[in-house]
Design goal:
Number of helices: 10
Bound molecules: uridine-5'-diphosphate
Structural class: alpha/beta
Shape: globular
Order of helices and strands: EHEEHEHHEHEEHEEEHEEHEHH
Length: 327
């Protein structure tokens, strides 16, 4: 039986497919390659280049393969874009989930691991954030992820694990696959574009936040640790685990300035910075409590050192400065 990975050619999806294969699982991928890359998948992985909103395409996959469970990453995920184009997010993310759930129901597939987000919480009331804290998204992206979580909950006979990621970072240590976005918005890859000579400086989005150095604090978690959590969640559901929601983060926050300093150590060069204005919708601090995932899923993140995380990203970016060749 196979695991259907929706969005398996994307950044976190492809690292999860890599880990699934390492665990001798069979993975089938559907990805419209809007932001994913064929080159992020080994040639042995069956890739359906299609959109999850296309019910006929999904039905074909469920007919041609014996799907045991779904891991669902396929969604748009740029916060700023979601504010400009909310309906794009509700269509692709929410309606995509609708078609996926309809197809799963039709074929009697009863397990899903869902890629959710810390953006479901919005501005945190306390740090670290726990799963029981209030969810009040501050942008359409976070809202779409919360709606998707809530949709899953109502489907009879479906068991789910929703994983709320904090800041995914890094790449596989061998450098085979990594982060490659046509439009890059994330801090670590943007910082690394400076020593690569692709950008003159990194702009720090505000240094007047109520944090020790005035810059925003985030919880950076290695993409392989995220991938591991998906496989643990899958096995948890296989073993009869009840539907639940888990945060995934390191539990330690780093400010934008601290990340830049760590990147300087990794690349061995000074990185030019400029102070810019705040980015709309950025909370001052986002730090996860991942105690629940550690306790229930037995998740033990391997990359707690932020320099180590950045080093794996640097290894990928310096060898693939233009990202995947198919871009
Ligand atoms: N950030 C920044 N400059 C950039 C990109 C990001 O100062 O060019 C900051 C951003 O404001 C946030 C942190 O870096 O405080 C992480 O941003 P990212 O977009 O990587 O992830 P997010 O926290 O939005 O999921």
């Amino acid at each position: 039986m196979a695991i259907l990975v929706c969005g398996g050619a994307g950044y976190i999806g492809s690292h999860t497919v890599y880990k699934l294969l390492k665990c001798n699982e069979e993975a089938v991928v559907i990805d419209n390659l809007q932001t994913g890359h064929r080159a992020a998948l080994k040639s042995s992985v069956r890739l359906y280049e299609d959109d999850i909103r296309n019910a006929a395409a999904l039905e074909k996959i469920f007919t041609e393969n014996e799907i045991e469970a779904v891991i669902h990453f396929a969604a748009n995920s740029i916060v700023g874009e979601s504010v400009q184009k909310p309906l794009k997010y509700f269509n692709n993310n929410v309606y995509g989930m609708q078609v996926l759930l309809e197809t799963m129901e039709k074929f009697g597939v009863d397990k899903i691991v869902f890629s959710s987000s810390a953006a479901t919480y919005g501005e945190p009331k306390k740090i670290p954030i726990e799963e029981t804290d209030t969810t009040a998204p501050t942008n359409p992206y976070g809202e779409s992820k919360l709606i998707m979580e809530r949709m899953i909950k109502w489907i009879p006979n479906l068991r789910y694990v929703s994983l709320r990621y904090f800041n995914a970072a890094g790449a596989i240590e061998s450098g085979e696959i990594g982060e490659s976005h046509k439009i890059e918005t994330h801090l670590i890859p943007l910082i690394l574009q400076v020593p690569l000579g692709k950008r003159d400086h990194i702009t720090i989005f505000g240094d007047d936040y109520p944090t020790p150095d005035g810059t925003c604090i985030r919880d950076y978690i290695h993409v392989l640790d995220l991938a591991d959590a998906h496989i643990l969640a899958l096995n948890y559901l296989r073993n009869g685990g009840k539907s639940d929601i888990f945060n995934l983060g390191n539990g330690t926050g780093f400010s934008v300035k601290e990340i830049i300093t760590a990147a300087e150590k990794v690349v061995g060069k000074k990185i030019k910075t400029e102070i810019g204005t705040r980015r709309a919708g950025d909370p001052a601090q986002l730090i996860a409590s991942s105690d629940k995932a550690k306790k229930i899923l037995k998740w033990t993140p391997q990359f707690s050192d932020v320099e180590k995380i950045i080093a794996t990203a640097w290894n990928w970016h310096k060898n693939n400065p233009e990202g995947y060749k198919d871009e």
